[in-house]
Amino acid sequence: MKLGIFVLLSLLFIAPGANSQVVRGRALPEKGHRVSDSLRRLPLRSTPKVTQKEQWEIFQSVQRGISRGDAAMFAKYFGAQVYISLRDNESGVFSSSQAFYLLSNFFSLHRPIGFEFTTFGDSDDGPYATGGGTIVIRGVRERIQVYVSLSHTGSRWVIAQLNIY
Asked: Half-sphere exposure (CA, 13 Å, Cβ side) for 115?
């Protein structure tokens, strides 16, 4: 199941150029540009700018938190229920506090040494971001892929799903 989702996501985001990616017909900057540059060009839902700013802040917080291995940096954006799927670990729907502890434990065993969102988009379910990075497990470096999706709950955007493959 996890492999199927990863393959599907990979097929959806085949880049036309060597370092460029296209989201809904718009090219995102090449690698090496800051995520904030990419987020400014993010073709999210046609909602008020305040809402888009909220989405950008969430994606930036998740990127910083994963890069530093600190779930507290983005846990405040979890919805009441969050779907979490972690490499070599549990997956399922968890409360926000359970999700925080699950991710904190994951990061204590899988130390991130780099992570960056590279693709941003919007689906019927809401905005999402995907990216890759590197973690260290028992002294061995391994590549990870991350998928994060948001949903609108009440008056704010929340993290509805976070997958680390």
From this structure: 29
